[in-house]
């Protein structure tokens, strides 16, 4: 199939958003931002043999997952996903059907959020690369920044941690006799960005959110650094799947603290708004758990402290634990 | 250099646009659209060994050129360039210095238009790939669509045609004794998107614009098709560099009609607004030339007719000329 026919075949038959003035089919797309809304934008790239292998992911999952990762960034800003633009480098050995599956995977998750495809580029190359840019809308001054944590806040996290990394581990080790293995594999291939949960917090003037793409160690430190506060986290409170509790301590920590790509949210909020978080969790059927609290920083830079069995340790970005 | 240090090093020290609420450094960037403006967005990708080779382009040119191509799309919509987001796949054999040159090339042209870098992703891979998404602003209902050509319009084009393709030809053939060769090579490596010219047409209610990225044959046909009209083009009026006039007829036509990546604009406008185009050209120091006119279509689909030495031929998208 030539490029023109392919573009025609993926061109949406209609657009969900009335803000679209011009979709695919001109030099660029045009949309009209609703009044009172800020625009949110992020980009994310996946490369074959770096971020994935076709032995652990089908083309369909690639599409699903790269857009899910982008949606997670929009969720972490408190915004409504609206548009996406796609660039794909596709090896000549690929069949049309495989390329179409990538677009189908994206469409599957895009439709869940009524997102419209606004543009893209499909070019040939040696190695599969997919790069997606998303655009979301958020009410003015309701963006959820990493710098918004305050002394006295509670720290919370959605979902369970380490599932995606454990799923990838099962796929690469080909150890397929673990209980609930489909759960883990699915969490790796088709993660759920916490868009609806984050949107339900809209009424709050302030909530700090960060999405967990590189493991909670990394993301908690980003909050501590950006907000200039210390985060105190109780290891025993970290939500994890029962199966992960059966692992050796070292492995468990590897997955739970440093396992990437869960696309859950870590956040902080003032104690008196905790009920709003609980209500948002209930309404969107999301697991949310308090895991610690925020205090004024004790050093020049904000840090993360991890409490476990009566010991207090500094939790570094890389997920390594350095005893004090 | 690790990814974090690199991101820090390319992070802008300030943003030109006060609409930026949050630049690089959170899960996503946030900006506030000015009232009365529509948003315009496009994406473009360049792959090593497909779109370029490092034997004909320096890393600096790669950055410059991919952003120029995107800016050309924004120019063809009549919009002001404002933001860009970048995804780069960089081979491990590349040096930090080379990667930095790519960003410097982008910054060089971005600064000319006061564009702000809003985000990006740099990942490693086998083959260099760069993908850029741009966002521009345009006054409501002033987007310049391909469907806006009307019976009676004049057809015009900016700059000279075929220069970029001829420049690439000189580089790949290593025939370095052509007069004005630097001009052609420069037009290939660092093309000038016609942003200012297109913005000077702002007062007009209607003008049809399309940027010449695949050769005028292709772009003229896109207008004819989208507007449902015929374009009649006089080959003798097509603007070309004197050096191209010295080529054989076959070669000249290859470059002028089908040579891609000039990033000039082809447009149509009602005859009585022609003086506005001339004034815009004068103010922005842009060559603009009338090359034909628009008439009602004579077949089911709009077509392009090329006149030469008293002969009238159908000009196809691919640049091939089929005798009637």
From TrEMBL, chains A, B:
Q: Which residues bind Mg(2+) 1?
A: 43-44, 121
Which sites bind ATP?
103, 120-121, 146, 213
| Residues where Mg(2+) 2 binds | 44, 73
GO biological process annotations for this chain's record? thiamine biosynthetic process; thiamine diphosphate biosynthetic process
Which GO terms label this protein's molecular function in UniProt? ATP binding; magnesium ion binding; thiamine-phosphate kinase activity
List positions binding Mg(2+) 4.
27, 73
Specify the protein name.
Thiamine-monophosphate kinase
Q: Which organism is it from?
A: Melghiribacillus thermohalophilus
Upper classification of the organism:
Bacteria, Bacillati, Bacillota, Bacilli, Bacillales
